[in-house]
Every structure is written in C-alpha cells, then in structure tokens.
Specification:
The protein is mostly helical and 507 residues long. Helix content is 68%, strand content 2%. It has 24 helices and four strands. The protein has a two-stranded parallel ribbon with strand order 1-2. A two-stranded antiparallel ribbon has the order 3-4. Strand 3 and strand 4 form a beta hairpin. The protein starts with a helix and ends with a helix. The relative contact order is 0.06.
Length: 507
C-alpha cells in the first residue's frame, strides 16, 4: 500500500481519502479501506507508514522456540478484557524466559547454548557436541552433532536448531519440576522471593507463570488427544462428530484440572465462536453424564440448575468469558475513529453470539448462566438506547450544516450514520435485547422524519437562487446517505420516485 500511494500528490491523496470515506458513509465499504485510509493519512503527514522492523534473532531464539512451542496456541497479542484462565499475554514470554534462565535452568547449559551458534560458525562442531553431551547427557543430540561433522555444512543455524529440538523435551521437564517448586515458594511471599514477585508484578504474573508451567506439563497429553479429534463444526456451522470425542471426555474426567487449557483449544477448533463452544460442551456433558443433573449452589448462594458440572463447567465458564470479552471489545469501537463503520460490524458478532447463547442456556430464575446473559443484555440495551435517543437530533444537526467544514455537523453526521447502521442491524434481533417495542417506535419515527425531510426539500428547492443552493445540496447529499444506509438503494429510489411513501411507512 505504501508503494501504491507513495507516487500520488498530496492533492490526489486527499481526493482518494474523501472518495473512500464517501463510499463508506454510503454503506458500500470495501475490504482494505481502513488500511488505505491509515496509509494515506500517514503519507499526508509526511511520514510513511512502515511495518515494525524485526529484531535480529539472538542465539537463544531457537532454544526459546523449541521450549515454548507448546505455549503457542495459548498466547494472545491483546489479552481479553475478561481474563480467562489458560490465555497468556504474549508479552509475558520475555519475563518467563528471564525466570527460566535465572531460576529453572543450569547457568552452564544456558551459557553453552548461547555460544552454540558462534562455535558452529567457527566450524567447531566437535567441541559443541562434546559440551552438549556433558551438560545434558542427551545421547541422541550428541550422535546427531557428530554425524553432522562428517560432511561439511554451510547451514550452521539449522544445526543449532536441530540440537535445540533434541534437548527441548528434557529441558521442559526440568522447567516443570523446578517451576512447581518455585511457585510454592512464591505463594509463601517470603523476603527471598520479593524480587521475583516484583518482576512478575504481583498476583497476575504469578497466575500466568502457573498457567505456563501447567501447560508445559500437560501439553503431551493434550497434543495426543486433540490429534485424534475429528472436525467438530460443519460448513453450515453445525456441531458434528460429538460421539467421537470419547478420548477428550475421558481425559477431562481423569484430569479435571486440564479443562481450562482444553477450553482454549476447543475454542479455536470451533472458529472462536463462544456460543458454539458452549453448545459443544453441553453436548459433551450430556453424552458423558446422560440426563442426570446435579444441583449445586454458586458463590452467591443461588441455586444453579445448569447441567454443566466439573470439569465441563470450566469450559462453559471460558465460553462466557470469551463472549463478555467480545462485548467489551466491541464497545471500544463506540467512540473510536471510524466508529460509524467499526462499531456496527463489531456489534453484529456480539448480537449473534447473544442470540445463540440465549437459545443454548436453559433459562431458569436463578440459573447462573441466565443471570450473566441478562446482565450483558441489559448493558447492551442501555447502550443502544443512548445511541437511538439522539438519532433524530443528530440527523437534523448534520443536514442543517451551513458548509462541509462545520465540525459539529460533521461529527453529528458520523454519529447519525453509526446509529442508523446499528438500528438496521439490531431491529431484526430486537427480541435478543428485549427492545421490540422501543425499536419499532424508533423505526416509525425515523421513517416519518425521512418522509417529511424529503417532502420539505422538494417544496423548498423550487425557485431557489443559485447562491442559496449549496447548503441545500449538502443537506440533500447527507439525507440520501442516511436513506441509503438505512433503507437500501432500492427503497430509497422508491421513496424518491413514487407517491407510495405512506404505504411503505405502514409496511
């Protein structure tokens, strides 16, 4: 994109930006529009938008990669707002490696591996093999290094990676064993562990360290079981092959503490759909436990009739945490740049998940799942009411602007577009947020406003002098944008070219 736009003049870039924005405002946003606008604005400001430069790989990178390979499915770049166990902030890896290096691995081994690449470049492969043999006792690694000396090789980095791959399983076991002992000491909060607790930044970092060590410990079993699982979701997004998940349910019953990590992997298997994950774990629980339902009390002392019991309840908890994070993530878009595009798109997935979860959860008066859904539903309904209460007034301010440079009117125009797209999206799902009557009233008021605005324009535009038409044309352009975004092109043309607007209004 940089290369494509770099040769354009500032005037051409500005024209391109206005064109893309106009296309977006008329409801015809195209793929890649956001990055195009970002690059264009950076170029207009005199600084090309560049990809982050990669750091040169250190000599320990191959070892880190092999040791932490089981953690890869659990790493997230932006941690969810509702922290769910089993997800690890990718930034924590640097802290984790520092702990491994300082407390969990022999310093001599780390030093030897850090010089491995330099030794390879100096063609001292025999010495490297001897060092690794003495420090790890891994015969296979030693034999592989010796065999590599028989024929000259120019790919020294590959040799180091192969050696690290050989020793990584043994080192992971050492990290797990020493890490579990270290966690016991950390939880005692003794003066000796104060510096390490400061490095971990308190309870949050200790929890991530605990999860990382637990994942390294159970990774072989999880890998073995998930390799046997068939596809769980069809092309039509329906659950399939539930009866073939016996190895997974057996593992969950034998090791309930593995459930949070199985939840992360299952969430990925179902395409990141929280509602689908919840329905999946319901099916797994029913297949395992039959129709028996246990009654228990939650932390608030409320009676829970949910069929999900441990360990399946933990997977259900993860599904709800992901849904709540999805909702909170969508709300970030509400006041962000290009909210008129991003917020409705983000909220669409939330509404679909809410509808599916509502269908999956057995609604009981004191059911904990139903209570959590109701809390999310009320929060979402309150936000939608705020958006729709100001819709008509924002449209009025936007259409009555004296010029396109009116900042307040432009802001109102974008807010009105956002609310219109939300109304169009939410109205068919009004039952999901329990706003049927409110949304229908808003819909009727909006149609009446559009009809009256069109009639007023036709009456007032006749006989206007040329110099008085500019504000009217801006009003007309924004009015048409509102109509096309809410009604669509076909109904907008019908409103403009026929006399049956009343019939459409009643329909």
């Amino acid at each position: 994109m940089n290369a494509l736009l770099a040769d354009l003049s500032p005037k051409a870039l500005a024209m391109l930006e206005r064109s893309v924005q106009k296309t977006n405002f008329h409801g015809s946003s195209s793929q890649g529009a956001d990055i195009l606008l970002s690059v264009s604005r950076c170029l207009l400001n005199g600084r090309p938008m560049r990809a982050k430069a990669q750091q040169p790989p250190s000599s320990l990178t191959p070892l880190q990669k092999e040791i932490f390979a089981p953690l890869q499915p659990f790493l997230v770049v932006n941690p969810p707002f509702s922290k769910a166990r089993g997800l690890i902030d990718r930034r924590f890896i640097d802290v984790l490696w520092q702990i491994v290096e300082d407390h969990l691995l022999a310093p001599e081994l780390v030093a030897a591996l850090s010089t491995a690449q330099r030794k390879a470049e100096q063609q001292q492969r025999e010495r490297l093999s001897y060092d690794l043999k003495q420090l790890t006792g891994t015969l296979a690694a030693n034999e592989r290094a010796l065999s590599s000396t028989k024929a000259p090789s120019n790919n020294y980095q590959r040799e180091v990676e192969e050696l690290c791959r050989e020793v990584a399983p043994r080192l992971r076991r050492q990290i797990v064993e020493k890490g579990q002992l270290l966690l016991v000491e950390l939880k005692k909060a003794t003066p000796e562990t104060r510096a390490l607790r400061d490095l971990l930044e308190g309870t949050k970092g200790i929890a991530e360290l605990e999860d990382a060590i637990a994942i390294l410990n159970v990774a072989p079993k999880l890998r073995h079981v998930f390799a046997q699982l068939p596809p769980l979701v069809s092309r039509n997004h329906h659950l399939v092959n539930i009866e073939d998940c016996g190895p997974l349910t057996s593992l969950l019953k034998q090791q309930p503490d593995i459930a949070p990590f199985a939840a992360v992997l299952l969430h990925q298997r179902v395409g990141g759909q929280s509602a689908t994950l919840f329905k999946l774990v319901q099916s797994l629980a029913k297949n395992t436990l039959g129709t028996e339902q246990e009654t228990s009390k939650d932390a608030c002392g409320l009676q829970s009739t949910s069929p999900l019991t441990a360990p399946f309840a933990e997977i259900g908890e993860f599904a709800f945490a992901m849904f709540e994070s999805e909702l909170e993530g969508a709300l970030v878009w509400r006041n962000a740049a290009y909210a008129e595009i991003g917020f409705p798109q983000a909220l669409e997935g939330v509404l679909n998940s809410l509808e599916d979860l509502s269908a999956a959860v057995a609604i009981e008066k004191h059911d904990k799942w139903a209570l959590r859904l109701e809390k999310s539903r009320r929060a979402l309904a309150a936000i939608l009411r705020e958006e729709f209460d100001l819709l008509i007034s924002q449209m009025s301010v936007a259409m009555n602007a004296r010029s396109i440079d009116d900042v307040l009117a432009t802001a109102s125009y974008k807010s009105a577009l956002k609310s219109l797209r939300l109304l169009k999206l939410v109205r068919p799902l009004a039952h999901t947020v329990a706003m049927e009557a409110e949304l229908e009233k808003t819909h009727q008021n909006l149609l009446r406003t559009l009809w009256q605005t069109n009639e007023n324009y036709l009456q007032n535009s006749n006989g206007r002098p040329e110099q008085a038409r500019a504000p009217t044309e801006l009003k007309r352009e924004r009015f048409l944008s509102f109509c096309e975004n809410y009604l669509g092109t076909e109904k907008t043309e019908q409103m403009l070219t026929t006399t049956h607007i009343k019939h459409m209004f009643h329909n």
